[in-house]
Specification:
Elements (H helix, E strand, L loop, with lengths): L6 E5 L6 H12 L1 E5 L23 E3 L5 H6 L4 E5 L2 E4 L12 H17 L3 E5 L3 H9 L10 H7 L4 H11 L1 H6 L2 H4 L2 H15 L10 H4 L10 E7 L2 H17 L2 H10 L18 H4 L5 H24 L4 E5 L5 H13 L1
Parallel strand pairs: 1-6, 1-7, 2-5, 2-6, 7-8
Antiparallel strand pairs: 3-4, 4-5
């Protein structure tokens, strides 16, 4: 990551038009987009994740022999949308695991490449942990994911996970907020980190963070973060419209195709929001209407969690998309930042 070269981040809850705005800003400020969405990394999962790619868009592979691509079993590249590159869609297959640590390593490499070409990197997405890992370079990123441990812990209840964490790292448990204490994914990651810290020679080991470029010392400085928000009622209406659109685009057909390709409901990609809600329907346990109802409910909850996450970051400059001048005000803010 090149020092003192600006970086623009567009964040906020789902359905606020982040990518559409980022494309407009990229054209205005000579930029390229870098996705920060944990659902849109999956190949072949386009409708449910809302990629909304033009029909004629093609994926351009970038450095297929790069160590990052080889070591992560992923593909690095971009789609050109009206000549604007959009990076880090379609990184891994639905049956592959992909952590925020791996995301940050690859994203920083892409951002560095964009900066070398004297363009403005615009990171856009709503996955808070991806953005935090990328921007802040947490110490815990030196601990790799332990997929065997995660598999064992996935079947445990939240209360059991809390008891385990209390025994291994009581300080960590007491420092977690209510949301994280009730989030099995957060608890499992905390257990993973605790074991990795206490067992340097065990299956969890620290990577040299100086090589990975993800230590706290590498926290990005020359960065502006734009947050998009709106009233709850407006956001819910926008989510409803997006779900209706995805049904019209035949999300059910896309899921059938994925299953025919051999992917399973237990795969990481198939556990994404927008897909997992359809599992009972495909197993003939619920109706399509019930699946859509659950999907809508989960999207509402996602938006709520995203807002809660991003509101904690005082660096975010918020703009209400219901304000007719919000795009104009964002452009002014960015221009002042780039001066």
């Amino acid at each position: 990551m090149r020092k003192n070269i600006p970086l623009l981040v567009i964040c906020g809850p789902t359905a606020t038009g982040k990518t559409k705005l980022a494309l407009k800003l990229a054209r205005q400020f000579n930029g390229e987009l870098v996705s920060a969405d944990s659902r849109q990394i999956y190949i072949g999962m386009n409708i449910g994740t809302g990629k909304d790619l033009p029909p004629d868009s093609k994926f351009t592979t970038y450095l297929p022999n790069h160590p990052l691509a080889k070591s992560s079993s992923c593909q690095i590249g971009f789609y050109a949308i009206n000549s604007i590159p959009l990076w880090l869609y379609d990184v891994v297959k639905p049956n592959q695991k992909f952590s925020s640590f791996e995301y940050a390593k690859i994203a920083r490499e892409v951002i560095d490449d964009i900066q070398q070409r004297n363009k403005l990197p615009i990171v856009v997405g709503g996955t808070g942990f991806y953005l935090k890992t990328l921007l802040d370079g947490l110490d815990t990123e030196g601990i790799e994911p332990n997929w065997q441990l995660r598999k064992k812990l996935n079947d445990l209840e939240v209360e059991e996970l809390r008891k385990m964490l209390k025994k291994i790292d009581p300080n960590k448990l007491s420092s977690m907020n209510k949301s994280d204490r009730n989030n099995p994914r957060r608890l499992i990651r905390a257990l993973e980190i605790a074991q990795g810290s206490n067992l340097p020679d065990g299956p969890l080991h620290r990577i040299e963070t100086s090589k990975a470029g993800l230590s706290q010392k590498s926290k990005l400085q020359n960065c502006i973060i734009i947050g998009l928000t709106t009233a709850k009622e407006t956001l819910c209406r926008r989510i409803d419209l997006r779900i209706e659109k995805r049904i019209e685009q035949e999300i059910v057909h896309e899921i059938k195709k994925l299953l025919l390709q051999g992917y399973r409901w237990s795969n990481p990609g198939m556990n994404c929001l927008g897909y997992k809600e359809w599992k009972p329907h495909f197993k003939k346990k619920t109706t399509e209407e019930e699946a859509v109802k659950q999907w809508r409910f989960n999207e509402y909850n996602l938006a709520k969690r995203q807002l809660t996450w991003f509101k904690k970051d005082k660096k975010v400059k918020w703009f209400d998309i219901a304000n007719s001048d919000y795009k104009k005000n964002i452009v002014i803010t960015i221009r002042n930042f780039l001066k």
